[in-house]
């Protein structure tokens, strides 16, 4: 970094500039939190209400009433997506990275390309397939569809991580007579714990944030995840911004938590090598 | 860490792309030499290891190859709401493509897609680069502020889009209120009401969403430029601007290509932002190919036409993917 000791005052100025940049970039988030606490008359006023001094929690109460079900659907679907994703991705990463299975480069390449398929194409085809299987409005369809957003990423990240695990470790287990499945379960997975957690956290987030599959695969309101809940909420009543914003805040909580948690796990994953810089 | 976050984040697709390219593009495991070495007693492992990757292959076939093939086929079928009841859809050759081509909305949609993509890419990149350069210097709280900038990009896009939609309201929206207050405008800009402004509004939101991603990847690229280059240039009397144009920009070229091609892939398929901010309206003025395909399939229930537009998007994706893989290869080539 730029060494040399310029006056301390200059660094303070730079920090102030940095704070200003962050404040501008994050302003919409502040505005959401602010609005989630404001009364309706403040929300429609022609002058902005910068601070929720006369705040109300009515918005959050209505989140519980009207969005509670959607939040539960989102939670269930996201957890299911994490499970399906890890079930596919972890063994595949182990097979490719540690056991060097044949055709691994073809598989890695397929996964890499798979994520470039436009989402609307997937939605179109999956809707038709789900209709044929009578899975429209079923959380199973959403879990499977959402997993297509996560499997490539999770496999690739676990693969990179496992490449960094010394072969001696699994060989020692094999010498002790452990089967491959056992080695995978009791040696590889514990070692890869951080990468698994990272893959799981991001899978959760992708599924939680999914809107395209949610809006195409659910037609019944009580089966819809929270992203669709918000979307139909604004469609239905354009004035109740207080409740809409409160829902937005609640729907953002997993991302906020992730940022706090992932700091540690993502850093740990990198520390163990496997990814370029 | 930021590099991984960069790869892991919002650009889920793109994200893993970057990671995967590193892995897939490196024959014999350049990243970690010991992983590449095949242990002596391990030669037999090959096919039995296949049991572990078999589920993944089956998954690729069922969840990527099948939908892709099914969409390509639907593009040639008269697949409407009736098909769901009868279970059959007659083949109609290129009729869907002709119908889309002659749809007066189509040209506008293509132009919108191009403008939306170009505007998003350029400004995301420019602002992202500016921020990356800014945060490259070390100053108190620099790391914390840099991580905070990632927040917008971890939020569900539906949430961000909804907030922006409200901020763009004519009279009670804060964007107009702030601009009026600063005397930058004299009357409210009809962001989401006017057919001339809606595409601009949607593009602005998408730029806001994409800035963190660009910043993170470019920041990683900046970190890789050897400090000695700058020191040497400073000794030779180069000023800050010269150092930026003669060292930073050329050295960032490979990373920039990767960022831009990833951005391209990601921007063309943007859906959530447009749907929550403007729904493609008013009067289709902010419709792009992706939302148009959605409209054809899921609102007009002409799935065959939706599939046809989807297939155009696949063609675009193929071109962009080729560009991306080439950019990654170039970058790896230089890093070597």
Automatic annotation (TrEMBL), chain B:
Species whose genome carries this gene: Actinacidiphila epipremni
Membrane topology: Multi-pass membrane protein
TM regions (residue ranges): 47-66, 114-135, 147-169, 251-268, 306-327
Keyword Membrane recorded: yes
UniProt keywords, alphabetically: Cell membrane, Membrane, Transmembrane, Transmembrane helix, Transport
The protein, known as: Sugar ABC transporter permease
SUPFAM superfamilies, per the entry: MetI-like
Similarity comment text for this entry: Belongs to the binding-protein-dependent transport system permease family.
Lineage top rank: taxon: Bacteria
Domain ABC transmembrane type-1: 110-324
This protein's record includes keyword Oxidoreductase: no
């Amino acid at each position: 970094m730029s060494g040399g000791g310029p006056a301390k005052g200059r660094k303070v100025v730079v920090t102030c500039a940095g704070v200003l940049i962050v404040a501008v970039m994050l302003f919409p988030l502040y505005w959401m939190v602010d609005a989630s606490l404001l009364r309706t008359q403040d929300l429609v006023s022609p002058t902005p209400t910068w601070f929720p001094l006369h705040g109300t929690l009515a918005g959050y109460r209505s989140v519980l009433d009207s969005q509670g079900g959607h939040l539960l659907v989102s939670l269930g679907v996201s957890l299911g997506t994490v499970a399906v994703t890890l079930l596919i991705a972890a063994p595949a990463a182990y097979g490719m990275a540690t056991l060097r299975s044949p055709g691994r480069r073809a598989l890695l390449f397929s996964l890499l390309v798979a994520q470039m398929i436009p989402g609307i194409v997937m939605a179109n085809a999956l809707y038709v397939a789900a209709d044929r299987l009578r899975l429209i409005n079923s959380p199973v369809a959403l879990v499977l569809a959402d997993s297509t957003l996560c499997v490539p990423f999770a496999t690739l990240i676990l693969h990179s991580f496992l490449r960094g695990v010394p072969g001696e470790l699994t060989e020692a287990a094999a010498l002790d007579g452990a089967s491959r499945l056992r080695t995978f379960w009791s040696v590889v997975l514990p070692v890869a714990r951080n990468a698994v957690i990272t893959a799981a956290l991001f899978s959760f987030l992708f599924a939680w944030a999914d809107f395209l599959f949610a809006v195409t695969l659910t037609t019944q309101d009580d089966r819809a995840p929270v992203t669709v809940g918000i979307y139909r909420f604004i469609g239905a009543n354009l004035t109740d911004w207080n409740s809409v914003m409160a829902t937005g805040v609640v729907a953002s909580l997993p991302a906020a938590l992730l940022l706090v948690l992932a700091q540690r796990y993502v850093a740990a994953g990198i520390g163990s090598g496997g990814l370029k810089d | 860490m930021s590099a991984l976050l960069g790869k892991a984040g919002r650009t889920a697709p793109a994200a893993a792309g970057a990671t995967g390219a590193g892995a897939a593009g490196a024959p014999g495991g350049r990243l970690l030499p010991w992983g590449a070495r095949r242990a002596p007693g391990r030669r037999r492992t090959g096919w039995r290891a296949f049991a572990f990757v078999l589920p993944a292959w089956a998954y690729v076939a069922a969840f990527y190859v099948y939908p892709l093939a099914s969409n390509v086929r639907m593009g040639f079928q008269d697949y409407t709401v009736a098909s769901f009841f009868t279970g059959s859809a007659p083949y109609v050759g290129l009729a869907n493509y002709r119908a889309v081509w002659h749809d007066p909305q189509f040209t506008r949609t293509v132009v919108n897609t191009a403008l939306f993509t170009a505007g998003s890419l350029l400004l995301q990149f420019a602002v992202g680069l500016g921020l990356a350069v800014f945060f490259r210097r070390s100053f108190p709280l620099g790391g914390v502020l840099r991580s905070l900038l990632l927040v917008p990009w971890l939020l569900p896009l539906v949430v961000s889009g909804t907030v922006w939609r409200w901020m763009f309201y004519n009279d009670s929206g804060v964007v107009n209120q702030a601009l009026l207050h600063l005397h930058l405008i004299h009357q409210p800009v009809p962001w989401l009401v006017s057919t001339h402004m809606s595409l601009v509004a949607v593009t602005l939101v998408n730029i806001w969403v994409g800035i963190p991603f660009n910043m993170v990847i470019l920041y990683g690229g900046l970190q890789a430029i050897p400090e000695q280059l700058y020191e040497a240039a400073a000794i030779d009397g180069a000023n800050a601007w010269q150092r930026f144009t003669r060292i930073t920009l050329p050295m960032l070229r490979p990373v920039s290509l990767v960022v831009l091609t990833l951005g391209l892939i990601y921007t063309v398929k943007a859906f959530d932002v447009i749907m929550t901010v403007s729904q493609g309206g008013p009067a289709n003025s902010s419709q792009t190919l992706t939302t148009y395909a959605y409209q054809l399939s899921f609102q007009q229930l002409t799935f065959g036409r939706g599939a046809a537009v989807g297939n155009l998007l696949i063609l675009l994706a193929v071109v962009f993917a080729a560009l991306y893989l080439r950019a990654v290869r170039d970058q790896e080539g230089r890093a070597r």
